[in-house]
Structure formats: structure tokens, C-alpha cells
Design goal:
By secondary structure, the protein is mainly α. The protein contains five helices and two strands. The longest helix has 22 residues.
Length: 131
């Protein structure tokens, strides 16, 4: 099991988005997943790609922090984009209010952990001990 906060979060969020993408593929085009999430093929594929990327980064430990930060930024942009296109023909991802909440929530968690943990600086005691 991943030990760092970034690996753990990437693994959990990746598994959730992978599951949502797979489940979304089982729902008919423009159907409702769990009775609240409107899904379509484009959104399902997007969830699968993000899910796999985060899951691989979390399980291998290679770039988990970068993956969390990148995915968090992506979900933040997607959340903002969704606010402007909801109810228009430009809403090709079938984004709705529940999607906005989930995307903004994912963005907050991913960015907080990605940017707020595991800095590349050595601890102060290690720096002083090497003098």
C-alpha cells in the first residue's frame, strides 16, 4: 500500500475515477450514473484516462505528486469551464451541477496534497547536520 500522502491520494482518486469511467460505459449514452451523474462517452473516456494515470502514479510512486497537481489543475479548469458551458451546445461532456461539485472537490483535494506535501527541500535538521 502506498505510504506517502501523494501516492495514497493518487491511488484512491485514480481508482474512483477509473471505476466511474467503467461504470459510465455501462450506462446508455446520456444516461444517469447512480441516478445523479449524467454521463456520455467523452466524459467516460476522460474519467478512464485520468483514473489510469493517477492509479499508475500512485501504485508505482513515479510522479504521484506531479500527477496529483496536474489532475487537480485539470479538474479546476474543467470545473470552471463547466460553469460556463452547462446548458449550452458547447457542453460536450454533459457537465451538470453534481459534476461541478465533484470536479471542484477533486481539484481541492488533489491540489492541496500535491502542492502541500512532500516538498523536495530537505528538513532543516538534515541541512544543519551536513555543515
Amino acid at each position: 500500500m502506498p505510504t506517502s500522502p501523494n501516492r495514497l491520494l493518487a491511488t484512491i482518486v485514480g481508482a474512483v475515477y477509473l471505476a466511474v469511467g467503467l461504470l459510465g460505459l455501462l450506462v446508455a449514452s446520456h444516461g444517469l450514473l447512480f441516478g445523479v451523474l449524467e454521463v456520455n462517452l467523452a466524459q467516460d473516456l476522460l474519467h478512464l484516462v485520468v483514473g489510469v494515470a493517477l492509479l499508475v502514479a500512485g501504485l508505482t510512486g513515479r510522479g504521484a505528486r506531479t500527477a496529483n497537481t496536474t489532475a487537480g489543475t485539470f479538474f479546476l479548469v474543467l470545473g470552471i469551464f463547466g460553469l460556463f458551458v452547462a446548458g449550452t451546445a458547447a457542453n460536450v461532456l454533459a457537465l451538470g451541477p453534481v459534476d461541478h461539485v465533484l470536479h471542484f472537490g477533486s481539484a481541492v483535494f488533489l491540489l492541496c496534497v500535491g502542492l502541500g506535501t512532500e516538498t523536495t527541500d530537505r528538513p532543516a535538521l538534515a541541512r544543519e547536520g551536513s555543515r
